[in-house]
Structure formats: C-alpha cells, structure tokens
Fold these 3 entries.
Entry 1:
Amino acid sequence: MSFDQIRNVTTEQNSFQLAPRGSDTDEALDIAVLTAWEKVKTDDGSNLVVDLIELYLQSTLPRILAIRNAAAEKEWVALKHAAHTLKGSSSTLGLRQVAKVCEELEEASSTSCTDGVEALVQLLVYKFIKAQQALAAERDRRLPGITRTLQRG
C-alpha cells in the first residue's frame, strides 16, 4: 500500500463529509466511505476493508471504556484525547454518528459546560452498537465463503 493510495482515499473520504442532513450520513455506516478503501491494494493481497473493520471492532471498545472512565472521573483532558482518537477512526470508516458524538464529547470536555457528558457517553455506546452491527454485516458480506462455513459449523 503506497502513501499516494492512502492520501487519495483519505481525500475522497473527506469529501463525503459535506453531505446534507437526511442523506446516507444519517445511517450507522456511510458505505461510500468504506467502499473508497477498496481502491487501496495491500502488499499481501488481503482484503483491506475487512482488515480495517476488524481493527476498528477490536480497538473501539477499550476506547469507549476509556471515555466512560474519564467522564466518571471528570478527567477532561483524557476524555478529550480519547474522544478525538475515536472520532478519527470512526470518520475514516464512515461511521458518522459515532464520530459526531465524539466531536460533541470533545467540545464538552473543552468547556465548562460538562453537564451533558454522561448522556453523551450513553449515546456513544448506543451509536457504537449500531455501528458495530453495520460493520459486522458489511464484513460478513465481503467474506461470504467464510461466513457460510462458520454458520454451518
């Protein structure tokens, strides 16, 4: 995978962020963003989109727990950092709702108005569950042979 390939996908992905409200961005997963990653070829021939989905699914729960813990402890700098990190990885895969809640958490942790942080953390968990379901379905769709074998066994 070359730097130019990644830059091109990232540029395309960023252009999708300007879609109007009520469009596909209101869904848990903006498939156009995820599909843009198909253009990137890996050196080992693996399915990059599936790899990105797996990485996101494995790394996100610990990040959400860090956000929850930081909010409970009123550690605003840690909360802002964790929310910022999750916002970036969510945006990269087209998980706009998760990214939006992370952005709101970032903003809340930067101001003195932190009253709604707990509600935002709960909303983040809800949005992540929806995103997790959408990503799992997309991963399974991209690996039909493996999925069918696992379902039979």
Entry 2:
Amino acid sequence: MKYTDELFENIVFKEKECDYIQCVFKNVDFSKCDLSNIYFEQCKFINCDFSNSIYSKFISKNNEHITSKFIGTNMVESHLENDSFKDCSLKYCNFSDGRINKTTFCDCDMSESNFISLKKFNQVKFDNCKLINAEFFETKLDKIDFRTCDISGIRVKMEDLKGMIVNSYQAINISTILGLKIED
C-alpha cells in the first residue's frame, strides 16, 4: 500500500508494510512498532512517539522530525539520508551499523545513545545537542562539529577522534581519552 500527501493525526500506528510519501503525521503513536518494512520519504512528524520501536534496516529520506520521542528506539543498520530532528528526545537510541548522511540534529537529547561501527557518517550536524555518555566506537568523527553540544562522558576510540571539531573546554575533557593528565 502507498500513501501520498495524506495527514495522519492522533492515531496509534499499526501498519506492517507501506510506503508514505510527503505525508504529515501529528501526535501519532509509533511506540513499540516494528517499522522495518515501512518507507517514509519527504514526510513530516510532529510530536510523535517512536519510543521502543524497531527501525532496524529502515530507510528514511528527506524527513523532518519535530518534538518527537525516540527513547530506546532500535535503529540498527538503518539509513538516515537528509533527515532533520528538531527538539527530539533520542535517549538510549541504537544507531549501530547504519548509515547517517546529510542529517541534522538540533536541540536534541541523544544521551546514552550508540553510534557504533557506522558504515557512513558524513555531513552530520549536531547543534546544541546533549550527547552525554554517547558511544562513538569504530565511527570516524572527521569533520563532525560538536562545539555547541554537551559531550560529557563521551566514549570514543582514540583513532576515531582525528578531525573531530570541539571547543577548548571539550578538548580538555577529550584529553582524558588520550591518557593525558593536565595539572596547573
């Protein structure tokens, strides 16, 4: 089934296989859904709840997420392409083994989330995000700008730090990963 230019509002999502193109979702409950066989393109999600849903092997292109919840969402092996997330809660999300390209996260809480072994992580923008205790193992952070973000407790391998953009305060915190001891 395929929907184009539809509005879905105040519903509990139950579809198993479907394509949505240029649709708007407002206050839709996607929580605990398996969205693996659902395709969204150029859709807008406003105040939706994706908590504890499965986005595994999911493809999302040119979608906009505003004030939505993704707490504990499984996005393993998913592909986010040119998506945007604004004022969203993405705590405890697992983005491992996926691809994130040309995607923006603005004013999002992504604390305790996993970005492990991402196959593609290019032109990703984090603006004023909380990435407290987030894990970036085996994910190259070259040209990723974290200057406006809270990256306290970030976990990353030393070899993945090359080219990562941070402010001077963050650089001091990152130095502990390098085993440096700073004394005055």
Entry 3:
Amino acid sequence: MSSFDSYKSNNLGRFQEEKNDDAKRNNNNYTQLNKLNFRFLQGGVGLVQDIRFSNIQVSEVQTPIIIDQFYCDKSTCRNQTSAVAVSGVQYENIRGTFTIKPVHFACSDSLPCSGISLTGVQLRPVQVPHYHLNNPFCWQAFGELYTPTVPPIACLQIGKPAGNNLQTYNDICWHY
C-alpha cells in the first residue's frame, strides 16, 4: 500500500511530515484522501522533487490539489522571494469532487514550479451553500497535460520556465 503524505517546509528547508490518517482503499483500488498538498512557508530553502500521486479519490474537498510556495501560518507574513524548489510532481488518475476550486498552484516568481504533470485528473464541482466555486489557479506553474482534465486546467504553462536551470538538489543547496 502506498503512503501519501503532505509536507510543510520550515524556513530552514526541513520538512515536517504530516501523515494523512484518512487514507483508505476503496473497491476500485483508489486511495481515498482529503487532499494532495504541498505548502511551504515563504523564505524556505530546499527541494521537493519526483513525487507521484496516483489512483486517488477525493470527496467534497475545498481544494484537492495544492502547491503553495507562499504559505503563511500567521495572520500576516512578510513577502519573501526565496522558496523551496518544486520539480517533477505527477498527478495520475485523481478523481472526485471539490467545493471551492480543483487546483491551486501558487509558485514563486524567483523559483517557479516545474515538471508538474497531470494525467487522468477528473474533479467535479459540488455546490455547497455559502461557497463560491472558482476556476483552477496557477501562478508560475509549468508542466504538461498528458490527457484532458476535468475541469480544464488551462492555466498550467506548458513546458519549462525560461531561465530555470535547476537540475538537482546539489544545484540549489551546494552551489559554491
């Protein structure tokens, strides 16, 4: 059985693992989760790379898929330009329902997210009283749509960010 965890970065780039105890298999061999998210405190340093989420069912989740390099765990945070690098995150056969928006990719201007891939993503809206449905959100998020998505996630920029030569963990953490 696969483990699907979300990670939160502190300002030193270490990752605090948040186990999702709600993970369950259903009869269609899908894992049921509340959300698939990466949230990083602003000003973090480090790299999240080569993560795959596959065969996951979500139900009535506000925003099921999140990458957020601007996360703030206080009421106000000072905007910082450094960020945890995010590269090679794959979403495969993600299905279910959402109540606010299906996808939120908020990536840094100075270190855009790259290599995001979406295959077989089918997230349908559920109207909940007092909630307003929003379209997918992407900022500085680059990757590929390998199959059409439901709803269409047209905001993902196809390809790689210009000038982003980040290749490995050593490039970001051990560059002399």
